[in-house]
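Comment thread on ticket #2218

A.B. wrote:
> Attaching the input chain for the structure job we discussed in standup.
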Amino acid sequence: MNTTLADTLIALLGHVDVPPAMGLWVTELAVQMPLEVRAAVVDGRLELLAQAPHSRWDAGFLPPVQRMSARLVLEE
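C.D. wrote:
> Ran it. Output below, let me know if you need it in another format.
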C-alpha cells in the first residue's frame, strides 16, 4: 500500500462527471466505501496511505479496514 490518501481520493472522486450534453449536472455526491488506511513516515514526513481493500475475506492477517464516508457538494 504505497498510495497516499489524497491520491486515492482523487482517483476515486476526481472522475465523477456527467457530460452536460446529457442534460444532467452532478451537484452532490455521497460515497461510503471500505479503505485500508495506515500512517507511515515518508521522507521524514508523516503520510496517510490508503487503498481499496485487496480482499473481502477475513483471513486474520490482512490490514484492518476502515469505512470512509465522503459528501461533496457543489458551492456557487
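A.B. wrote:
> Thanks. Noting for the ticket: The longest helix spans residues 5-13.
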